[in-house]
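Entry for the shared binder. Reason: the reviewer on the internal report wants the predicted structure included alongside the sequence.
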Amino acid sequence: MTVFLSKESYEKFKSELIYLKTEGRKATGDALAEAREKGDLSENAEYDAAKEDHAKLEKKIAALEHALLDVRILEDHEIDTSTVTILTKVKVFNEKLNKDIEYQIVSEIESDFKERRLSVTSPIGKGLLGKKVGDIVEISTPAGMMKYKILEISK
């Protein structure tokens, strides 16, 4: 599956992958070696924690490698703001909260709800895709039915 990223995001993820494969692996390897030196591995909580940290690191490395296998970098001039698409920012009026909110629609790998970066596969992301300024959208979310009016679409 193609992952659409900005050049900036691609470089960030590439750098993170290099860091995890070098410094990250060294740190977890050192922690495993140190815990191993403490004796009986069957009752060694430090060793179990170090193994778990190492497994999490390897899982993150694998996920980043997989995501970066099929990347398409979108340049600013390729992003169409006539409708909500990936890498657009969309300002909406949330009727339930009675306030304006701005989201950026991104690939799953970049999503972060706290930063208002919504995955194209999230309920709100899917509901907003393809919509235009002025459209009113009702979206079923885990928090219930949400109603948004699209106010602005930008890069």
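Summary line for the report: The chain has two domains: 3-73, 77-154.
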